[in-house]
């Protein structure tokens, strides 16, 4: 049975409330190179994989060195396990297929319990605006989404360019030209 509300602490405090919506952030471990376009797509697909079954996504973005998501875990799926799943699955793919050395992600993630509709709207705007704050002038960023039907990376042949932000292309919420999701569950 889920406890209605509790707080636990590792290095950071973590508030949990049954039915709560959370803003989460996780970062690359110290010394890791920025995420490639392909790695950002791996992370996006992991975030979207269990949308509607383990959690409901409000918004998410995968930047070159960190990721943000706003989500509401479903009953029986604790936020800590969801984050561990995303980080573990993506780290295994990045080590095995992209030549990274573990650890890929910092051990602890930041999370905040969203307290009201205004905070939810403000945090959603913050998450979706992250690319344009990092790279002023970017009009569209393929590693961000609103809800579970966000973009899952650039279309085949689309290059992000040397600095990370992609050249704008028409947003396509189901990304039909992108490679299919990995069949292994995160």
Task: Note the main attributes of this structure.
alpha+beta, 5-stranded antiparallel sheet, two-stranded antiparallel ribbon, Alpha-Beta Plaits, 7 strands, 186 residues
CATH fold description: Alpha-Beta Plaits
Strand order of the largest sheet: 6-3-5-4-7
Q: Total domains, how many?
A: 1
Categorize the overall geometry. globular
Computed CA radius of gyration, to the nearest angstrom: 16 Å
- Tell me the distance between the termini: 24 Å
CATH superfamily descriptor: Transposase IS200-like
**Helical region count?**
3
Which CATH architecture? 2-Layer Sandwich
Average pLDDT rating = 81
Class by alpha and beta content = alpha+beta
> Low-confidence parts, pLDDT < 50 over ≥5 residues?
155-186
Proportion of β residues?
A: 15-25%
CATH class: Alpha Beta
Q: Indicate the percent of residues in helices.
A: 25-40%
**Main beta sheet strand tally, sense and closure:** 5 strands, antiparallel
Please count the beta strands (DSSP E, at least 2 residues each): 7
Helix-strand sequence? EEEHEEHEHE
Could you walk me through the main structural features you see in this protein, from its secondary elements to its overall organization?
The chain has 186 residues and is of the alpha+beta class. It has one domain (5-149): Alpha-Beta Plaits, CATH 3.30.70.1290. Helices cover 27% and strands 21% of the residues. It is built from three helices and seven strands. The strands form two sheets. A five-stranded antiparallel sheet has the order 6-3-5-4-7. Strands 1-2 form a two-stranded antiparallel sheet. Strand 4 (55-62) and strand 5 (66-73) form a beta hairpin. Helix 1 runs antiparallel to helix 2. The radius of gyration is 16 Å and the shape is globular. The two termini are 24 Å apart.
